[in-house]
Design goal:
Layout lengths: L4 H13 L9 H20 L4 H9 L9 H18 L3 H18 L14 H8 L12 H9 L5
Length: about 160
């Protein structure tokens, strides 16, 4: 079965945060916050004019993750909706925020070598980002749950 964009984001967040000492009492909030912020930036982008092309450019590696407005939006969502509520200090906040371009860079290029038998289907990604549930793994209302948390809803 094909991996979903949500699975890929969670895998990269987990892999990239391994070397950072995150206090145990907030680790789940930080990991979920990173995943939700990245996913939230993609869902907000897909709804904008030209957003699908921006996402495709990022995921095929044509746009560098570090210079992508999608990455910048993920950083803003994470800082404003997660980090400012956790009081982790500037050093840890900086380390965690610096992971976003790295994680986005790992996602970048996932469609680059796809020839029909890859793990990720761009159409499935777009369906997921638009709120469909073809490849969701979280159950329930995808946008209501994940995006609601990112945009300051219930946590």
């Amino acid at each position: 079965m094909a991996s979903s964009i949500i699975d890929l984001i969670k895998q990269q967040v987990s892999a990239q945060t391994g070397g950072i000492q995150i206090p145990p009492n907030v680790k789940d909030k930080v990991l979920n916050g990173l995943s939700d912020s990245i996913f939230g930036s993609l869902t907000q982008t897909v709804a904008k004019t030209g957003g699908i092309e921006q996402i495709k450019s990022l995921l095929t590696g044509k746009t560098a993750a570090a210079s992508s407005p999608i990455t910048a939006l993920a950083g803003n969502l994470f800082s404003n909706n997660i980090l400012k509520n956790l009081n982790l200090g500037n050093v840890l906040n900086g380390k965690l925020t610096a992971l976003i371009p790295v994680i986005m860079g790992k996602l970048s290029g996932i469609l680059k070598d796809q020839d029909g038998d890859g793990d990720v289907d761009f159409n499935d990604i777009i369906i997921t980002l638009k709120g469909g549930n073809k490849t969701t793994t979280t159950g329930g209302g995808l946008l209501g749950g994940i995006l609601g948390k990112v945009l300051g809803g219930t946590r």
